[in-house]
């Protein structure tokens, strides 16, 4: 079961966020584009107290402190809005297509509370 209302505190087994699609872009040496993968059939994003669970092809876990910045990419012609999570220490960036603008706002607020830096546009969308 997923919801756009992130509880505080989070449940012990994590809180699943409603997501339509997750894309990942991988880099080599931190700057050279190396690969790309996505999941629109069964993506999973679960928030835990100190880490983020992401399933594209397999399930991986990332500490919030490894996210260098969260950004907001607005809706464009034939493309819905996305949240971008940059994890340079893991050489990966995640592009999240959430189900609603309210879910985007809440996730950005949650990430900010976890100490993740937000871009100017992300701060604007989060209402901060």
Summarize the structure.
The protein has 128 residues and is α+β, with helices and mostly antiparallel strands.
Structure characterization notes:
Strand 5 (51-55) and strand 6 form a beta hairpin. The chain has a 5-stranded antiparallel β-sheet. By secondary structure, it is of the alpha+beta class. Helices cover 16% and strands 41% of the residues. It has one domain (15-126): PH-domain like (Roll). The chain is globular.
Task: Reconstruct the topology from this structure.
Layout lengths: L14 E3 L1 E10 L3 E8 L4 E4 L3 E5 L3 E5 L5 E5 L8 E6 L4 E7 L2 H13 L6 H7 L2
Antiparallel strand pairs: 1-4, 2-3, 2-9, 4-5, 5-6, 7-8, 8-9
Name of the CATH homologous superfamily? Pleckstrin-homology domain (PH domain)/Phosphotyrosine-binding domain (PTB)
Shape: globular
Using the coordinates above, name the CATH class: Mainly Beta
Record the strand order, biggest sheet: 3-2-9-8-7
Low-pLDDT parts are none
How many strands? 9
What helical percentage do the residues reach? 10-25%
Mean pLDDT across all residues, rounded? 86
The proportion of strand residues reads 35-45%
CATH topology: PH-domain like
**What does the main sheet amount to?**
5 strands, antiparallel
Q: What is the string of SSEs from the N terminus onward? A: EEEEEEEEEHH
The CATH architecture can be named as Roll
Distance between the termini: 28 Å
Overall number of domains = 1
- Radius of gyration based on Cα positions: 14 Å
Backbone structural class: alpha+beta
How many helices? The count is 2
């Amino acid at each position: 079961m997923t919801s756009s209302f992130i509880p505080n505190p989070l449940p012990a087994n994590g809180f699943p966020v409603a997501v339509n699609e997750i894309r990942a872009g991988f880099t080599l040496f931190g700057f050279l584009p190396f690969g790309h993968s996505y999941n629109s059939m069964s993506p999973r994003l679960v928030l835990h107290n100190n880490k983020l669970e992401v399933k594209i092809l397999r399930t991986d876990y990332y500490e919030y402190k490894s996210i260098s910045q969260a950004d907001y990419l607005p809706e464009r012609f034939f493309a819905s809005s996305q949240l971008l999570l940059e994890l340079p220490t893991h050489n990966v960036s995640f592009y999240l297509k959430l189900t609603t603008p309210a879910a985007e706002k809440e996730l950005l607020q949650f990430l900010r509370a976890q100490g993740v830096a937000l871009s100017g546009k992300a701060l604007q969308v989060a209402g901060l």
